[in-house]
Amino acid sequence: MPKIPTSRLARTAKFGGLVAGQSARWAGTQAANRLRSDEGAEAADAKRALALADELVTQLGQMKGAAMKLGQVLSTVDFDMVPEGEREAFKEKLSSLRDDAPQVPFKKMEKVIVDDLGGSLDEHFRELDDNPVAAASIGQVYRAALHDGRDVAVKVQNPGVAEAVETDLRNAAVLLPLVKRLAPGLDAKAILNELRDRIGEELDYELEAQNQRRVARAFKGHPFIRVPDVVTSMSTRRVLITEFVQGRGFAEVKELPEAERDRFAEICFRFFYGLVRRERIAAGDPHPGNYLLGDDGRVCFLDFGLIRRMDADYLDGERALAKAVVGGDAAGVHRWLSDLGYLPDPAAFDPERVLGQLTAAGEWYFTIGFRRLSPEYVRTSMEISGSPASPYFEEMRRQTIPPQALLLRRMEGLLFSVLGELRAGADWGTLALEYMAEEPPSTPLGRAEADWLASSS
């Protein structure tokens, strides 16, 4: 694996080299296009866009830290200039950057623990397994036992990653020209500013501990959802200690009988949309590695570093938009898309067209009736909502994503993919109405949650 650049100058040079090299090659392609036919110029642009996309994935993957996280979050953006047949593969490459997280020797991680907690490992832990049970873009997780007998997970930030991330965040603006070339309609500056804020927060494990405590309190005593408690007295900026939870991971859950997979999927849906509805929190990392199915049937949710606290007025607008789509209210859809910031030039969009676009893109979520999802259905839906072959492609390429909606859309997209991988079945439209229109619970799980909410109030 290539050596990861760690110094500020080396990381800045990586960003600068990526942009300068691609800009020069892009300019060369445009100059040559003057001598090509329209068809030849279009093919050359597609080839150049694909080369740019591939280099973007390669460089971000080698740099890790915030650079890698930028790639993960950008995987939710549709890149118009990438050839249609390559677009989903490119987005999958971006989203899979998480799976290539670097392994750091335990000796270096031990130094972070003792520097932050003081003393020695033996003073804090009865035992600690130095083989990580999980690794992510900015840290690793170890299993340990405290002297009082509690089984805990010890999440440790990779040494030096904070400095590397801060440099990446300062350099993120350098990527603007490349992002604009791949997605001409996107407000790239606003999106990158939002990413800087959210990723910067993810570096602070004390902030993540606050997030996790808040979510754990919100679901305390829940009949089918569990969030591990935080050991507050032992958590610092670079070390986060929580109760250790055992359970079946996503790969095992995928092999369960249909009814058990459906139950697991509904719980995931209710957790993420319930978090938005009741706590105004968009959790930006609902990927498969953050779920565990416990022996008691509860689903445990992990990792609260990448979250966004949503404004109440903004969420009211998102719910009004969703209800307008379900109700077939074209004027309402246009008005709310405009008010929320999705339409840079509202007068340039036809209300019936944007209604048709959202109805097609969110069919699984906006349509009442049982539907069994599949990876193939998810792929087709994403192609409909972002492919040049879509009848709404011209509208979509002129739209943007409001910064406040970025993690909300990422949450929805990743959750949709997870439900498809599970081949889960439910009346997703009716479930959604419980959260967007406060309709009564429509399933036994919904009624159990309603009883819990009533007893907790």
SSE order and pairing:
Layout: H1 8-33, H2 38-63, H3 65-74, H4 84-95, H5 106-117, H6 121-124, E1 125-128, E2 134-135, E3 139-146, E4 151-157, H7 161-171, H8 176-182, H9 188-202, H10 205-218, E5 225-226, E6 239-243, H11 250-253, H12 258-279, E7 281-283, E8 291-293, E9 299-301, E10 307-309, H13 312-326, H14 330-340, H15 351-361, H16 363-366, E11 371-372, H17 375-386, H18 393-397, H19 406-421, E12 425-426, H20 428-436, H21 444-456
Parallel strand pairs: 5-9
Antiparallel strand pairs: 1-3, 2-3, 3-4, 4-6, 7-10, 8-9, 11-12
Helix pairs in contact: 1-2, 1-7, 2-3, 2-4, 3-9, 7-9, 12-19, 12-20, 13-14, 14-15, 15-17, 17-19
Keywords:
457 residues; three-stranded mixed sheet; alpha+beta; disordered N terminus
Sum this structure up briefly.
The chain is of the alpha+beta class. The protein contains 21 helices and 12 strands.
